[in-house]
Amino acid sequence: MDIKETDILGDQIANHWYYHSKAVAMMRLIAKIEAASILDVGAGSAFFTRHLLSHSAVKEAWCVDTGYKCDSDEDYAGKHIHFRRTIDAVNADLVLLMDVLEHVENDVSLLTDYTSKVPSGTQFLISVPAFQFLWSGHDVFLGHKRRYQLKEIESVARQAGLTVKHGNYYFGVVFPLAVVTRFAGNILGERQQPRSQLKQHSSFVNGILSTLSSAEHLLMQHNRIVGLTAFCLAESR
């Protein structure tokens, strides 16, 4: 999770409809993966790592982010998290890149680098923001370089030497609302103005958006049509 968004949501991250729903989607996509150790690349606040440690059999996590001031370690849910600015080889069963590749100029190069750090057969779960036509000041605020179609992120994974196992869009139910909101902002000249669209909603609005997104979980793995997020599940060779 981007540290900029941590500053906005504070200690309400886990309750925010977007991050709660995305964490549940992540768990569904990796439900059949038996992982004892994970590597979370561009982990930021380690929101997704903490969710995994709390809700799965994962015993140890390595969180890598150049934004960390120094290396450190902590226990969470009785398990170990190692925070590192950089990392060499690591024996991880699962690698997370949750909204990371859109931040770098050369996405293939970054992914290839981490593919070389883990054993053959390691699973990779990648998420990226979807559809370039949804570009807005929110992307500028977060320092994004691009947004992706599903076939594009799958191509990046293959170019990095991974075998793509599955891909799907998510947040398809709220997609129309996002389209209207972003097009309206672009008409008003906000397309290139750095401004986060993430906000703390009332419990009523948060509940509605959470319910809509949760209703999508059962069918999301079949959605290759539309959504705000593109997921790609792949495996190192």
Description:
The chain is α/β, with parallel strands linked by helices and 237 residues long. The chain contains 8 helices and 8 strands. An 8-stranded mixed sheet has the order 3-4-2-1-5-6-8-7, sandwiched between helices. The protein is globular and about 50 Å long.
Characteristics:
globular, single chain, 237 residues, Rossmann fold, alpha/beta, eight-stranded mixed β-sheet, 34% helix, 8 helices
The CATH topology assignment is Rossmann fold
Report the strand count: 8
Q: Report the CATH superfamily.
A: Vaccinia Virus protein VP39
Q: What summary fits the major beta sheet? A: 8 strands, mixed
Number of helices: 8
What's the CATH C level? Alpha Beta
Give the strand line-up of the largest sheet: 3-4-2-1-5-6-8-7
- Tally of individual domains: 1
CATH architecture, by name, is 3-Layer(aba) Sandwich
Q: What is the straight-line distance between the termini?
A: 27 Å
Helix content: 25-40%
